[in-house]
Amino acid sequence: MRWFVGDIQGCAREFERLLEAIRFQPGQDELWCVGDLINRGPDSLAVLRLWQSVGGRAILGNHEIDALLSFSQTKPKKLKRLQDVFRAPDAEELLGALRNLPILVHLSSGGKGPDAWMVHAGLDPRWTNLAEIASRINESPHDDAWLQSEEVDFATNVRCCTRDGRRSDHTGPPEECRAPFRPWDSFYSGRTLVVHGHWAARGYYRGDHTMGLDSGCVYGGSLTAWCQEEDRIVQIPSKEKP
Ligand SMILES: [Mn+2]
Questions:
Q1: pLDDT tens digits, the chain, 242 residues: what are they?
Q2: Residues in a beta bridge with 106
Q3: Whole domain around residue 163: which residue ranges?
Q4: Is the overall model pTM greater than 0.90, yes or no?
Q5: CATH number of the domain where residue 132 is located
Q6: CA of 39: how far to CAs of 75, 83, 205, in Å?
Q7: Does any domain span residue 242?
Q8: What is the Å distance from ligand 1's center to 60 Cα?
Q9: How far apart are alpha carbons 105 and 94 in whole angstroms?
Q10: Distance in Å, CA 156 to ligand 1 centroid
Q11: Domains contained in the chain, number
């Protein structure tokens, strides 16, 4: 089975319970995190260790990018919750693994369940040929300039935008997004399902051709996973008080 997991944000206990609940078999099943595995929550290092131990894969989220730019001193930020990651004996290796992650990935279901694109926050309405965009972005050198590039920034941060790719800084629910901005997915006209995270105030939702998996575990919500073959959702309530 292939499982997509929403924003974990350092919620190691919920991540562990989720893997138990779906009876995840490393080597047999495939795990794809939708980005933001780390920061904000109680134990980012444990999340990374568990993710690596089960052979997890992922795409980049804005919190991984913050961590990478802070660690490289390009944009030094305190990031109190990430100090144990930065001080780990294998910090270079752990952060190197995050730096190598792609931004936009297509995962074919092989006829069982829907095919899917995966991106942390969303797609620029001007991106019509996703395969071309994905290979160009993913195959560029993943240096600090790339991490701060417009396309990477868009894919890992957008919630509401205009058709010509202007973004608002709205973080609340989609219905409160103000004109001329609209939720990015309202511009998406592709037929392939796009699975994303990043929008905790929106929570888990299933649209016609998009699906959001960030159900705000770190804010006292839940951790959500989607099984592609069975087109099935599993949720683990948060143990953290909001
Ligand atoms: Mn995010």
A1: 999 999 999 999 999 999 999 999 999 999 999 999 999 999 999 999 999 999 999 999 999 999 999 999 999 988 999 999 999 999 999 999 999 999 999 999 999 999 999 999 999 999 999 999 999 999 999 999 999 999 999 999 999 999 999 999 999 999 999 999 999 999 999 999 999 999 999 999 999 999 999 999 999 999 999 999 999 999 999 986 54
A2: 117
A3: 2-237
A4: yes
A5: 3.60.21.10
A6: 16, 10, 23
A7: no
A8: 9
A9: 21
A10: 6
A11: 1
